[in-house]
Predict the structure.
Amino acid sequence: MSTTPRVDVPDRAYRDDGVITMGEVIEEHAPALAAARRRYFDTLLPLTAAEPVAHELLRLATAELTGCRLCRNQRSAAAAEAGVDEDVIARARERRYEGLDQRARTALELGDRIRAHPGDLAGAGDPATPPEVLALGSEAATAMVMTTTRALADGKALVALGLEPEGYPVQVPA
């Protein structure tokens, strides 16, 4: 992992506490991408507000998959802030979903499906709607799909830009 950015970090990207905001870095180098990313967040945030526990557990499971220590720590803290106890956090990190709240479990299973078959959610070319989508409903399922794809994309962007820290703090907005 990088401790030196591979791109110039504009002064405005540094917060007072030294954290770099990834959105400002992207804005500096790719303004159109930054605008599209902001529209994505503007759509995602209201959708996830209705499912904060499922949202944070899904982000945590994605962070666990990508292996980003910063992401795992941030997501564990965010899940705890959303009211998730340590046992549930540990089970989500280990992909042991038995006994979880049904909506959280369903969201996590949908996230697993997306990460395993991103271009074929039903798997093996099956045109059927995945059962998790039917169980969650279209709005919540949309939020969980967007959450998973966004978490994967931001993780890749952190690495590609050389912003994944070893003691080099970066803030990726919720």
